[in-house]
Amino acid sequence: MGARYEERASRLGGAVLWTWSGARDPARPVLPDGCIDLLWAGGRLMVAGPDTRAFTPPAELSGGCAGIRFAPGTAPALLGVPAHELRDRRVPLDALWPSPAVRDLTARTGDAEDPSAVLEDIALRRAADAEPPDPLAAAVAERLGQGSSVAATARSVGLGARQLHRRSLAAFGYGPKTLARVLR
User: Is 73 exposed, middle or buried (0-12, 13-18, 19+ CB in 10 A)?
Assistant: First the structure.
């Protein structure tokens, strides 16, 4: 049986649930998309930060994994950590959240028939208790993704260039020029 990737919309606005089964083709790396994922792979819960370059998952992540991909700029509020701290990294969830809670979530996810549904439940519960994402993040991502210049984007959201850069690092993991490149 060949490799199979499937996506479906999440009940969490802007998020996508995904599953992967089968061996990974090293010639087809994961490309940067400006997103952060909460994922289940190799019996562990991890966070995949925003990438600045193509990423080839290691062999231990082949087989089967599941995730929830958060829209650009939305995950930092849910995870409780600025996106730039996760840039180009795969971080065990217990490095971000209390270990006892992560052990419980790991057991629940491991016992589930559909791990991505458990990841969605985790995200929905976190979203109910978390501060909302930076309100400008969606507008910044939309404008830059449409090809607007950094200067025009900063003006449109009422920020100076330095403010936009700082807010972009926290929300997306990189500055607005890199975000624009990734989103195009």
Answer: buried
For 115, 143, 144, 184, the CA distances from 138, given in Å and listed in that order, are 28, 9, 10, 15
CB 56 within 8 A of CB 101: no
Tell me, yes or no, whether 77 and 101 share the same domain: yes
Question: pTM above 0.90?
Answer: yes
Task: Measure CA 51 to chain center.
Answer: 9
Establish if 36 belongs to a structural domain: yes
| Predicted local confidence at residue 67, as pLDDT | 97
Tokens of 83: 């996106």
Extract the runs of DSSP E, i.e. beta strands, from the chain.
4-9, 16-22, 36-41, 44-48, 63-70, 90-92
Q: How far apart are CA 82 and CA 111, in angstroms?
A: 30
Residue 149, CA atoms < 13 Å, CB-side half-sphere: 4
Same domain? 141 vs 120: no
DSSP state of 51: -
pLDDT in tens, 6-64: 999 999 999 999 998 877 777 778 899 999 999 999 899 999 999 999 988 876 666 78
Range(s) of the domain holding residue 31:
4-129
- Count up the domains in the chain and report the number: 2
Residues 28 and 118 in one domain: yes
* DSSP run (H or E) holding 104: helix 99-111
**Domain identity same for 48 and 71:** yes
